[in-house]
């Protein structure tokens, strides 16, 4: 069956089973491999994308549910908040192995787009669904504060 998906501002007409999780369509059919597979059951956050600006776990979202929404992946992230997050991530050397980090950046950017001056508690709540096996949590929190300072200066 044909499904239309708007990803990073481009509409893709895809011949896929409508029950296929978005993650696999992004990776296998569209070739956007920045979004990662971790748990497959919406528990780790590695597969996080934005759907109309809201975070979405793409591993459990059938493409048929979201064909009318605008999807943004790590490759298409370009808002002011997203750029501030990416700059802070580099400056604070957040990444260790890197596997979880596209999901972390997607969640951090969504947070700062809604709340440019988050408290530690706001950050912990917004990021609680993103697991990092390398335990970069302190650097992630510091980088979100650094990005917030850039945005609100
Ligand atoms: S792979 Fe989707 S939340 Fe873990
Ligand atoms: S940086 Fe390794 S899992 Fe997060």
From TrEMBL:
Provide this UniProt record's keywords sorted from A to Z: 2Fe-2S, Iron, Iron-sulfur, Metal-binding, Oxidoreductase
A Pfam family annotated for this chain is: Fer2
CDD domains for this protein: fer2 (cd00207)
Alphabetical list of InterPro entries matching this protein: 2Fe-2S-bd (IPR002888), 2Fe-2S-bd_dom_sf (IPR036884), 2Fe-2S_ferredoxin-like_sf (IPR036010), 2Fe-2S_ferredoxin-type (IPR001041), 2Fe2S_fd_BS (IPR006058), Beta-grasp_dom_sf (IPR012675), Diverse_Oxidoreductases (IPR051452)
Task: Pinpoint the 2Fe-2S ferredoxin-type domain residues.
Answer: 1-77
Going by the entry's taxonomy, the superkingdom of the source organism is recorded as: Bacteria
- Span of the secretion signal? none
Name the PANTHER family on file.
Answer: BLR6218 PROTEIN, OXIDOREDUCTASE WITH IRON-SULFUR SUBUNIT
The name this protein goes by in its record: (2Fe-2S)-binding protein
Task: Please name the source species.
Answer: Ideonella azotifigens
What does UniProt list as this organism's lineage? Bacteria, Pseudomonadati, Pseudomonadota, Betaproteobacteria, Burkholderiales
């Amino acid at each position: 069956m044909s499904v239309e998906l708007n990803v990073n501002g481009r509409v893709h007409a895809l011949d896929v089973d409508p029950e296929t999780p978005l993650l696999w369509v992004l990776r296998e059919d569209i070739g956007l491999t920045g979004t990662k597979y971790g748990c497959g059951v919406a528990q780790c956050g590695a597969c996080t994308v934005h759907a109309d600006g809201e975070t979405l776990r793409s591993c459990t979202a059938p493409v048929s549910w979201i064909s009318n929404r605008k999807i943004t992946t790590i490759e298409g992230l370009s808002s002011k908040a997203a750029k501030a997050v990416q700059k802070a991530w580099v400056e604070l050397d957040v990444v260790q192995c890197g596997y979880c980090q596209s999901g972390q950046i997607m969640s951090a950017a969504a947070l700062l787009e809604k709340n440019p001056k988050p408290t530690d508690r706001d950050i912990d709540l917004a990021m609680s669904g993103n697991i990092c096996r390398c335990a970069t949590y302190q650097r992630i929190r510091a980088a979100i504060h650094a990005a917030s300072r850039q945005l609100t200066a």
